């Protein structure tokens, strides 16, 4: 590990932070400058949080600790980054899916929207063990599902006009 550990996480963390930022951008109402700041704050929070919980030789170790989750409670890392740009938890719940699980593991970043949604891979790196490319077929259907999911908003999305 040593000083190299942080560098190894860079792709996974930036992929995960970019994904959450994209969800916010898609919901609308958050400025580009705020989004950029949010993404940087989230990456910083994740780097800090994962620093001693990143095991490239055993990628699944610590997976639960690195899992980012929104499930009627806001994930503290997302909440912290949002707080830096003045977004309240209430506002985040309006902008983001009410059920989101994001797994940030060495060599793989994947997510699931909804409790029963399929797991979609955002990033898959070359694993030292070499068992890559088995989940790639499902990628296109995931993208479609994400789009379909956005076009039929859940009940909580109808409250957006309240604060404006």
TrEMBL record:
It holds the Pfam family BTG. Belongs to the BTG family. Transmembrane segments: none annotated. Gene3D superfamilies: Anti-proliferative protein, N-terminal domain (3.90.640.90). Coiled coil: none annotated. GO terms for biological process: negative regulation of cell population proliferation. It comes from the Eukaryota. Residues 96-115 form the Anti-proliferative protein domain. GO terms for cellular component: cytoplasm; nucleus. This is BTG1 protein. It comes from Spizella passerina. PROSITE patterns: BTG_2.
């Amino acid at each position: 590990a040593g000083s190299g550990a942080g560098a190894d996480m860079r792709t996974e963390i930036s992929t995960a932070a970019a994904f959450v930022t994209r969800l916010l951008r898609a919901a609308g109402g958050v400025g580009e400058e705020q989004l950029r700041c949010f993404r940087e704050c989230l990456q910083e929070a994740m780097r800090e949080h994962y620093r001693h919980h990143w095991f490239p030789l055993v990628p699944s170790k610590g997976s639960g600790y690195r899992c980012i989750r929104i499930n009627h409670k806001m994930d503290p890392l997302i909440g912290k980054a949002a707080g830096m740009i003045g977004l309240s938890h209430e506002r985040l719940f309006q902008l983001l899916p009410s059920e989101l699980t994001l797994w940030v593991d060495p060599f793989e970043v994947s997510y699931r929207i909804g409790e029963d949604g399929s797991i979609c891979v955002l990033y898959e790196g070359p694993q030292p063990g070499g068992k890559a490319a088995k989940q790639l077929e499902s990628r296109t259907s995931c993208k479609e599902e994400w789009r379909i999911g956005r076009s039929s908003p859940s009940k909580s999305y109808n409250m957006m006009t309240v604060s404006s």
